């Protein structure tokens, strides 16, 4: 998103793309893995969620596709106009997924029309409402803040300074959004009636981690900022699934809500998946840590040849 907010020319926009060049495709793989893991471990949830929110998830996929191909097409475009078109595609493809995914999650936790078989029939205003829209905007702002903090870690020169300056503007807006988000969650979900203590603690943690990120911005400490924004994002997801538990889909008729125990696959399948996860996840985590530590040198768009 920052390519259209802090970059002033093609070199700077390509430098921003280069900063995540070694990582973006691996990061998006986690989303595909999540879908596959849902299908294998909680097939009823997968079927209900993906059919009920088919169009939202289709648009998420479109955003991820145009974002993914824009890396290559920007690099190979032969004209300035062509590069500009794909850079705009890169921006749009970076905004759509967090906005739509957060919209979907915030719609899901409010409860949607479902039948006894687990079929979901959300109508337009079940998906698009005040809470889902505020949640979508909050997701975009959290992603933008996290990206700006990453830029401050990976780039040098004017881009790093502009990312720092923009963060000083975005964080106060984010705090206001978090207040509105918390109020809407309190009144439009059952989180605080069913799981008051844990929901309150997690909400406080979201605010504290956001304050940690802002403290890092004010003190110009990139590490604290990046840790704070990453933990804030994580805690939002924890809040949503803590409120859902033990349900995975909430129906407007509580009798039709899908519980983990009814959505789960057989014990044998879950046992095999657990063994595979225990073996593979640490290996993948080691690879990701290695890839991030390998590319620690700061990029200067005016001084280096950028590659992605």
UniProtKB/TrEMBL annotation:
It is found in: Cell membrane. GO terms for cellular component: cytochrome complex; plasma membrane. InterPro entries: Cyt-d_oxidase_su2. One of its GO terms (biological process) is aerobic electron transport chain. The chain crosses the membrane at residues 53-73, 85-107, 127-148, 169-187, 199-218, 230-250, 270-290. Its main location: membrane. It is a multi-pass membrane protein. Belongs to the cytochrome ubiquinol oxidase subunit 2 family. One of its GO terms (molecular function) is electron transfer activity. It comes from the Bacteria. This is Cytochrome d ubiquinol oxidase subunit II. Keywords: Cell membrane, Electron transport, Heme, Iron, Membrane, Metal-binding, Transmembrane, Transmembrane helix, Transport.
